[in-house]
Amino acid sequence: MATRGFTGRRSTGDETGRVPPGQHLVEDFPVLSAGPTPRVKLDDWSFTLKTGPRPVKSWSWAEFNALPITKMTRDIHCVTTWSKLNTPWEGVLVDDILADAGIAAPTGFALAHSYDGYSTNVPTADLIVGKAMVALRYEGAALTPDHGGPARLLVPHLYFWKSAKWLHGLQFTERDEAGFWELRGYHMYGDPWREQRYTND
Ligand SMILES: Nc1nc2c(c(=O)[nH]1)N[C@H]1C(S)=C(S)[C@@H](COP(=O)(O)O)O[C@H]1N2
Ligand SMILES: [Mo]
């Protein structure tokens, strides 16, 4: 403890206690994508909710934007070790998507599916009760294509790879099914505060 003032957490710039272990703060907003940015025209965009293979409801861009819009300002943490504080988003809570579909969450797990073929798994409990949204805006403006526009999932309390960009749908699954990075050695849950980076962390 005697050395804390010289070499402790504060030397990493974390005066807030909001930076998880192994992370450092950034002021810019890095772009991380497994492949090229897909260009999705708003006229062609749709979002589909599924239970297993069965479509429950689909929304066009106009229909989706008519759902209740919620603002959420959160810290985000990428597994490549950058964290960014107070990122301001607007979008539709998963709760409000389920309500519009007239269902309660039907299973314990979900897979997010994206226009670039990306997918990621998240337990249902981490998507509901105000914890996650389908974000449509960042810093008051439409999401840029590189950051996932037209729409991306935002699950801010898990590593940022869970926040699928270019979101096309959410599929509820009976079991916890691995997505793109989870099949390639990343953790099934991804809690930054427990440093759940890789499969066996
Ligand atoms: N569809 C899709 N979503 C994705 C990715 C991707 O390659 N494709 N990369 C993930 C990863 S690893 C991170 S860290 C964040 C990066 O989001 P950003 O580019 O807006 O910072 O998006 C996540 N969502
Ligand atoms: Mo990432």
From TrEMBL:
CDD domains (alphabetical): arch_bact_SO_family_Moco
Listed name of the protein? Sulfite oxidase-like oxidoreductase
Pfam families of this UniProt entry? Oxidored_molyb
Positions of region (Disordered): 1-25
| Species for this entry | Bosea caraganae
Describe the location of the Oxidoreductase molybdopterin-binding domain by residue ranges. Answer: 35-181
